[in-house]
Design goal:
With about 450 residues, the protein is mostly helical. It has 18 helices and no strands. Helix content is about 80%, strand content about 0%. It is globular.
Length: about 450
């Protein structure tokens, strides 16, 4: 990562990650397509199972926030230590990061057994919707260890630049999920018909398969980083360094969970048409097809940037970031065009009743306006995290989602009582994000990056 031409290095590292994350996004879409076809006894409004999954999404997002945030802290620390040739410290970062992932999974297991019921009562009084949501989310939380440990081992592979191996684990889990989704949901080929519980079981099965494969790829192979838990003791310095970058990332992505919870509340309690939660659930699943490849590129770039920041190579660091920015803006512009031209075709995949297509088309066209702006903000956030300034990303996320998006959505809902007006809050929030990110970018370049530029 310190000598290969940047363009070739980015391509080699990011392509497997883009493929694996795109498959991840596609199987999330496939999962929702199958869920939308679960038999629904409701006579009007959006599909109950799809709405229940939408209400469960903020908690799943919170799980991902903790798992990914911890993994981001691991990745940043391991890459920097490898760049500094401090291999024992890189090993310590890996072992302690995996320990933190395990502890986090146990916390969510306990929460899955205790707080899911009260959570769903916040949004609905419908007993059918409540039962579907509790069933789905409890399975995902109680058996959520797979996603935590998988992401830990996945970032170990990424920090060493071995993204092809990372892709193998991700693809295997995605394929398992896609295969078993219809078998468990509808009871095909002699499997039990489990409905929404089947969707949750297929999801956790895929996560556990990815976990086992990623673990084997790290433990069995010969790598720069070696994971060992013999005589393991938590290392305070490693944990502190992991959370110095990881905790702001957890908070930043956890804010996304709070935002989704708030949006679900606004859409389910402030508006009475019953379609908002289902439409937002569809939107987030489909937008992941655009965002996931972008995150694959930025994850690869983060490892390269962090390595070269540790090696004090300013030219390679900035070259990587500028290339990342250009590619991300191109991807998001393509996403904008697709969402503007083909929203009807996209929404109709999920709309089995034909009741939400009109409102869904308007939502896709309005929300997607912010895509190119989001690309710029996400790329700046990648640079913040790779250089150990995760706090900057946390503040940007806080300002975007809690200070701008939720208040704007609530005001638009209360003042207009129109679902289509609420979607403009996404553009308002992204403009706020751009302003704050630009300020911190200027600060980073004047201080930390200027310090290594003259070396």
């Amino acid at each position: 990562m310190g000598t290969m031409p940047i363009g070739k290095l980015m391509f080699n590292m990011s392509l497997p990650m883009v493929i694996s994350m795109l498959v991840q996004a596609l199987y999330n879409v496939v999962d929702s397509v199958f869920v939308a076809r679960i038999e629904d006894t409701a006579s009007s409004g959006a599909n109950s199972a799809l709405t229940a999954v939408g209400l469960a999404y903020p908690i799943q997002l919170l799980m991902l926030a903790v798992a990914i945030g911890t993994a981001v802290g691991m990745n940043s620390l391991m890459s920097r230590r490898l760049g500094e040739k401090r291999f024992e410290d890189a090993n310590s970062a890996a072992s302690n990061g995996l320990f933190l992932e395990f502890v986090s999974a146990m916390v969510f297991l306990v929460l899955g057994l205790t707080v899911i019921g009260p959570f769903f009562h916040i949004f609905t009084d419908d007993p059918t919707l409540y039962e579907l949501g509790v069933t789905y989310l409890r399975i995902c939380m109680v058996f959520g260890l797979g996603i935590f440990i998988h992401l830990g081992f996945d970032r170990i592979l990424q920090s060493m630049g071995k993204t092809t191996l990372s892709m193998v684990a991700q693809l295997a889990g995605a394929i398992v999920n896609i295969i078993f989704d219809p078998l468990f949901i509808f009871g095909y080929w002699g499997f039990p018909k489990m409905g929404i519980a089947g969707a949750a079981i297929a999801t956790v099965m895929g996560q556990w398969v990815s976990m086992v494969i990623a673990m084997l790829l790290v433990v069995v192979g010969k790598h720069e980083i070696k994971v060992s838990f013999r005589k393991f003791r938590p290392n305070r310095d490693s944990i502190r360094e992991i959370y110095r970058v990881g905790l702001p990332s957890i908070i930043m992505q956890g804010i996304g969970s709070v935002m989704n919870t708030g949006m679900n509340f606004i859409l389910s309690r402030f508006l009475t048409d019953g379609m908002g939660v289902a439409i937002m659930s569809i939107y987030y699943k489909m937008q992941s097809i655009i965002f996931m490849p972008l995150f694959g590129i930025t994850n690869a770039s983060m490892s390269i940037i962090a390595y070269n920041y540790g090696a004090k190579s300013y030219r390679r660091l900035m070259d990587t970031w500028k290339r990342t920015l250009i590619v991300c803006v191109m991807i998001m512009t393509i996403g904008l065009v697709l969402f503007q031209l083909f929203p009807k075709q996209i929404v109709s995949i999920f709309d089995t009743k034909g009741t939400i297509s009109g409102a869904g088309i308007q939502a896709f066209r309005t929300i997607s306006i912010h895509f190119p702006i989001a690309a710029v903000c996400i790329t700046m956030g990648t640079l913040f995290q790779a250089t150990g300034k995760g706090f900057y990303s946390m503040i940007v996320s806080l300002m975007r989602q809690l200070v701008a998006l939720l208040p704007a959505a609530a005001l638009l809902a209360l003042l207009t009582h129109r679902l289509d007006a609420v979607w403009w809050s996404f553009l308002i929030a992204e403009l706020m994000s751009l302003a704050v990110s630009s300020y911190y970018m200027s600060k980073l370049r004047k201080n930390e990056l200027a310090a290594i530029k003259d070396l």
